[in-house]
Amino acid sequence: MLRVVEASRAPAKVIIEGLGKRFKTRKRWVVAIEEVTMTIREGEFLCIVGPSGCGKTTLLRILAGLETATSGKLEVAHRDSAKPLNSMVFQEQSIFPWMTVRNNIAYGLKMRRVDSRIRDEVVERYLKLVGLSKFADAYPHQLSGGMKQRVSVARAFANDPEILCMDEPFAALDEQNKILLQEELLKIWESNRKTVVFITHSIDEALVLGDRIMLMTAHPGRVKAVFNVDLPRPRNIATLRTNPGFHKQFSEIWSSLREEVNKAKADEGICT
Ligand SMILES: Nc1ncnc2c1ncn2[C@@H]1O[C@H](COP(=O)(O)OP(=O)(O)OP(=O)(O)O)[C@@H](O)[C@H]1O
């Protein structure tokens, strides 16, 4: 039986303290993020929004262990050493073209030598959740863009990581596919309450999915504000948009984000 703990009361899963990252380019140093401090709770769905170039991806890549911070501290509670610490879903399609849908989804489990009976059960479950049971033996080139992104999402969840890092996973999809995938993601997340860190440019998407929204400042990225999303779960995307709270929160977040977008435009190209 799944124990659902309200995110705000759950133990800390990720503690980020004064995190900074600078990159050396040929001509100068680029400060990507600066003094980022944030605690992400176990089972929380955290969305990150901010103007282009403010360091969202850099922060996520540090969380995913793909980049190292130049200052500050990052702690991720790794409660089950049999599980991977994190899985990443990217905007661009990142599934293996030479593997069937089934084998793509099974990949992480296979690498961890999970018993084949359990592996098959997990794969079947996720195939069903993302509506791809009929395409289990198809190869990626036989799928649409939306279907490929479904495989990415299913693979990441099936891998059962401690935290799931998603970098604008639906940005390249058309509106209809985006809504369908958001619904599927909500359905999967509501059934297993993984800790998810999800980058998006869309306030709308952040409100539909997130428990909290972390808003970053223009370059270099700091935490400007953190908003609690006061919308009931389980969420139905169609009815959510008619909720007056949705529009109120949208306006509040947009007025704060707009200032940063304007700053980013004014500062374009300026680096330290
Ligand atoms: N490997 C790198 N080398 C040099 N500079 C980098 C590197 N990676 C990122 N940067 C710089 O760090 C800053 C933050 O980039 P990042 O991609 O994290 O921003 P972002 O908020 O994810 O942007 P977007 O919303 O456009 O995807 C930018 O100025 C970028 O040019």
TrEMBL record:
InterPro entries: AAA+_ATPase, ABC_transporter-like_ATP-bd, ABC_transporter-like_CS, ABC_transporter_ATP-bind, P-loop_NTPase. Residues 14-243 form the ABC transporter domain. Keywords: ATP-binding, Glycosyltransferase, Nucleotide-binding, Transferase, Transport. One of its GO terms (molecular function) is ATP hydrolysis activity. It holds the Pfam family ABC_tran. PROSITE patterns: ABC_TRANSPORTER_1, ABC_TRANSPORTER_2. It comes from the Bacteria. The keyword S-adenosyl-L-methionine does not apply. Transmembrane segments: none annotated. This is Mannosyltransferase. It comes from Desulfotomaculum copahuensis. The lineage of its organism: Bacteria, Bacillati, Bacillota, Clostridia, Eubacteriales.
